[in-house]
Amino acid sequence: MPSTSVLPPTAAAPDAPNAAPARASAVGTSAAADRALSEPAASPSATRRPVPRVLSIAGSDPSGGAGIQADLKSIAAHGGYGMAAITALTVQNTQGVWAVHVPPAAFLAQQLDALSDDISIDAVKIGMLGDAEVIAAVRSWLEKVRPAVVVLDPVMVATSGDRLLQESAEAALRGLLPLADLITPNLAELAMLMDEQEADSWPAALEQGRRLASVTGATILVKGGHLDGGSCPDALVNTGGLLSEEVVVLQGERVPTRNSHGTGCSLSSAMATAQARLGDWEASLRQVKPWLTAALQNSALLGVGRGNGPIHHFHHLQPPASALGFADILWAEAQPDLEAIYSLQFIRDLTDGSLAENQFAYYLAQDAIYLNGYSRVLARASALAPTEAGQLFWARSAQQCLEVESELHRTWLSTRTVEPGLGPVTKSYVDHLTAASASGSYAVLVAAVLPCFWLYAEVGKTLHAEFLASGAPADHPYSAWLRTYADEDFAAATRQAIALADDAARRGSEDERAAMIVAFRQSCRFEVEFFDAPRHHA
Ligand SMILES: Nc1ncnc2c1ncn2[C@@H]1O[C@H](COP(=O)(O)OP(=O)(O)O)[C@@H](O)[C@H]1O
Ligand SMILES: Cc1ncc(COP(=O)(O)OP(=O)(O)O)c(N)n1
Question: Distance, CA 211 to ligand 1 centroid (Å)?
Fold first, then answer.
């Protein structure tokens, strides 16, 4: 920990108007390098507040995972009072950024002045800036109103690959760096700020971080999110003696999830808030990193979007994932696909009875082919099951599949004319299940076969309820089929399959559980495609 004797006096009294000490103006000046010693930014005692007032100057992400929206959640999750001045509006969801609109910089300047004229700001987090004019507006405000904690996340390109800062503004962003106390670049941003190649290893990243710390005088948070491998370290680097050592590394495990949308935004605003409360960067990172890891671990519970989903900022207000069954996590993962199924034309037409007969016939024929392959895979699950109850359940289910297949041919398909061929979606789905059965992992196999029980039962229950709610019209062409969805035996079998998956997850390793989620998600995706296939291939 830094001794208080090396720390300078307070930059601004907690309730006094924000003061504006002189700051170095460009990267690479010796004044900038000296700053860490002469005026290390966070002046602990004065900035420590039970509920710090934290301003985020960043872009808006309407999907709520990154930008201002993530910052406000992150600030609140760390006990701060959040404020937001919006630099840019994005058209964005979990799959990418589709457009960016940057309002006039003068309007942002007005917002910033209105805030600092009225409110003592304990910490500022700066995120997406968009263009050079916005950077200039933020810069002149920072030079005027110098909050005690300034965290700069040099947002340039989203994980999706979309640009969030005009290329022509990169030099202006470099010029802003010495005004920050903490800079939180990811590996690509770190390389760009140093005008060097991206680091290909953790030691190389730390070296690059050290160079950036030395030219800016700021503390650098080097992030390991984009590294390969099972670990995910972060490090604080300061060459001016602000930390207990020049480089302080915090090890961390990599969470096997693709829900990493907004991790950088959330981390930087959490650090700004924690620093305003604790006045110590190391203590702040020690508090923030485990929170972020848990927010990633619990992200599946949110079930937001079909791409890189957001993290769960308020996971600590809910039972932790470990207290929930693994099946709850799988169910959260399935929600986007379930929603996709309900919005399919095939499902809507089947429910209201307007579905073309050839599409229904194609669906039935593919179902029969699928059930045959599915039966073989269930038989394999029976062979691998660790308990007799599991062995019996999967064997019985395999047999029932063959019985339903033969019933389909005897009744539903006997009066219809359909091409008997194996459709592309059916083939891909069965191939995926067969690959899971060849993986040798019972847990992965059970996760792969589960959506066919679970999503089908859920969709069936909903469709049947809608059919009854519409008065169960006698002339509905698919009424007999919709009534089959009410089968209580299938619902009971589904409950048992879920319980067996839960049990398999409990017995499996961490890696196996991660592989279960991947296999389950893939099958959920195939469930959507299976219902959509008649529209394309009938
Ligand atoms: N899969 C993961 N598991 C654990 N921590 C992660 C994971 N992905 C990112 N992080 C953490 O999220 C934070 C943001 O890191 P990073 O992804 O490198 O930045 P950015 O979001 O700006 O691209 C860092 O603290 C990093 O360690
Ligand atoms: C409005 C907005 N600001 C920043 C980002 C980038 O967020 P970040 O946390 O750096 O990382 P990803 O979300 O790209 O993983 C954004 N997307 N939108």
Answer: 21
With tokens 């959507």, the residue in question is 528
Dist. CA 58 → ligand 1 center (Å): 19
Give the residue, out of 261, 292, 299, with the most ligand 2 atoms within 8 A of its beta carbon, to mutate for a pocket test.
261
Q: What is the number of the ligand 1 atom nearest to the C-alpha of 288? A: 25
> What is the C-alpha to C-alpha distance for residues 257 and 289, in angstroms, rounded to an integer?
16
Q: Is residue 260 lining ligand 1, measured as CB closer than 6 Å?
A: yes
Residue 413 has a pLDDT of 84
- For residue 38, the model assigns a pLDDT of 33
Equal fold, 51-298 vs 326-537: no
pLDDT at 419: 78
Establish whether residue 189 lines the binding site of ligand 1, counting it when its CB lies within 6 angstroms of any ligand atom: no
**Run means of pLDDT, 10 residues per run, the chain, 538 residues:** 26 32 30 31 54 97 98 98 98 94 98 97 98 98 96 92 92 97 97 96 97 98 92 96 96 89 97 96 96 90 86 83 75 90 94 94 94 96 95 96 88 82 96 94 97 94 90 90 86 92 89 91 96 94
From the CA of 438, how far away is ligand 2's center (Å)? 39
Site to substitute for ligand 2 among 93, 164, 288, 296, most atoms within 8 A of C-beta: 164
pLDDT for res 406 = 87
- CA of 338 from ligand 1 middle (Å) equals 28
- pLDDT (0 to 100) of residue 36: 29
Q: Distance of CA 405 to CAs 98, 357, 449, 485, Å?
A: 45, 20, 17, 16
Ligand lying nearest the CA atom of residue 74: 2
Task: For the domain made up of 326-537, give the CATH fold.
Answer: Heme Oxygenase; Chain A (1.20.910)
Ligand 2 neighbour 264 (Cβ under 6 A): yes
Instruction: Give the domain 51-298 fold.
Output: UDP-N-acetylmuramoyl-L-alanine:D-glutamate ligase (3.40.1190)
Q: Which atom of ligand 2 is nearest to the CA of 90?
A: 1
- 106: exposed, middle or buried (Cβ count in 10 Å: 0-12, 13-18, 19+): exposed
List the domain boundaries for the chain: 51-298, 326-537
Distance of alpha carbon 350 from alpha carbon 466, whole angstroms: 11
ipTM: 0.98
- Close Cβ partners of 408 (under 8 Å, ≥ 6 residues apart): 364, 367, 368, 371
User: Looking at residue 7, what is its pLDDT?
Assistant: 24
